[in-house]
From TrEMBL:
Residues 1-22 are annotated as: Disordered. It comes from the Bacteria. This is Reactive intermediate/imine deaminase. It comes from Actinoalloteichus caeruleus DSM 43889. InterPro entries: RutC-like_sf (IPR035959), YjgF/YER057c/UK114 (IPR006175).
Length: 137
């Protein structure tokens, strides 16, 4: 059996990677979206300083853009990982996350999720989110 090729996913609708990684990688039906933060894809600037609700929405919009570039949508996502800098932001993030994701999963079968409290690469970042999707071409 031939090995499936690995493809980097790239879109201008999400921020360019700041370091040495791809926005997303697809191999066969699997699509992994790299951790995204609250960055405007046009300016590549961090936005909504101190507002975890708005940062969560912007971050999920970036995830959605990379999913779309890889041929997927939130309906195809099986796992999302959310990283927060403080437990105090959980309820607000969860509200924004719920609004965004529920509206984009018509089947009602929401992705699995893990939430971790940790330090993030930039002080401006209150949230970072990555995704794993299975794409059915």
């Amino acid at each position: 059996m031939a090995a499936q090729s690995k493809t980097a996913i790239r879109t201008d609708a999400a921020p360019a990677p700041a370091h040495t990684f791809s926005q997303g990688v697809r191999k066969g039906p699997l699509l992994q979206v790299s951790g995204q933060g609250p960055v405007d894809p046009t300016s590549n600037e961090y936005v909504f300083h101190g507002d975890v609700h708005a940062q969560t929405i912007r971050t999920l919009e970036n995830v959605a853009a990379i999913l779309a570039a890889g041929g997927a949508s939130f309906e195809d996502v099986i796992m999302l990982r959310v990283y927060l800098t403080t437990r105090d932001d959980f309820a607000t993030m969860n509200e924004a996350y719920g609004e965004f994701v529920t509206a984009r999963v018509p089947s009602g079968v929401l992705p699995a999720r893990t939430t971790v409290f940790t330090g993030l690469p930039r002080e401006e970042m209150l949230v970072e989110i990555d995704a794993l999707a299975v794409v059915n071409d």
